Amino acid sequence: MADICELDINDPRWNDIEIAKLAEIAFASVLAHHKLDTDWEIGVLACSDERIAELNDTYREKNQPTNVLSWPNFDLTPENAGAIPAPTGFDDSLGDIAVSYDTCVKEAQTGGISIQSHLTHLLIHSCLHLLGYDHETDADAQRMENLETELLAKLGIDDPYKNDANSGVHFG
């Protein structure tokens, strides 16, 4: 089995956090849940707020930093809102993810959780996006949050949405 994560550390502050190990664990849990083997590759850019703001502006026309961005290689989004994606028919690369050190640390501190727990949540969240999940409708958001909570619980991480008003985490 090859590594799932193809890591590009653009900001050296990520070197103090075991991002490669956390990404492998997060991605493997998502793939196992979907009964997919781990012979997939996901590119991860570990960057700063400055770099992710540039990417957010280029790809989403939002000139501001965000916690995480995802670029799926395939559109696996189900046709009906609230439906469960059926991730099939793609090659060996699911897509790419960028995660910002500054925003990740700030959100973890605001939420009173470890950077490792929060990063794992962001990686699971973004991996689900690569598999066709989204949070465009209330039904889709609830389905995605429930699955994230389930996967995090299996890894011994508390529900990040239990105190949603106080979490400081925002997607989209």
UniProtKB/TrEMBL annotation:
Q: What class of enzyme is it?
A: hydrolase
Query: Pfam families, alphabetically?
Result: YbeY
- Free-text cofactor note: Binds 1 zinc ion.
Q: Cite the binding residues for Zn(2+).
A: H125, H129, H135
- The protein's predominant localisation is cytoplasm
Show the SUPFAM superfamilies listed in the entry.
Answer: Metalloproteases ('zincins'), catalytic domain (SSF55486)
Superkingdom of the organism of origin: Bacteria
| Compartments, record wording | Cytoplasm
Q: Which Gene3D superfamilies match?
A: Metalloproteases ('zincins'), catalytic domain (3.40.390.30)
What EC number(s) does its UniProt record assign?
3.1.-.-
- List keywords of the entry alphabetically: Cytoplasm, Endonuclease, Hydrolase, Metal-binding, Nuclease, Ribosome biogenesis, rRNA processing, Zinc
Q: Which cofactor does it need?
A: Zn(2+)
Q: What does this protein do?
A: Single strand-specific metallo-endoribonuclease involved in late-stage 70S ribosome quality control and in maturation of the 3' terminus of the 16S rRNA.
* Family indicated by similarity: Belongs to the endoribonuclease YbeY family.
Q: What is this protein called?
A: Endoribonuclease YbeY
Organism name: Paramylibacter ulvae
Q: Which gene encodes it?
A: ybeY
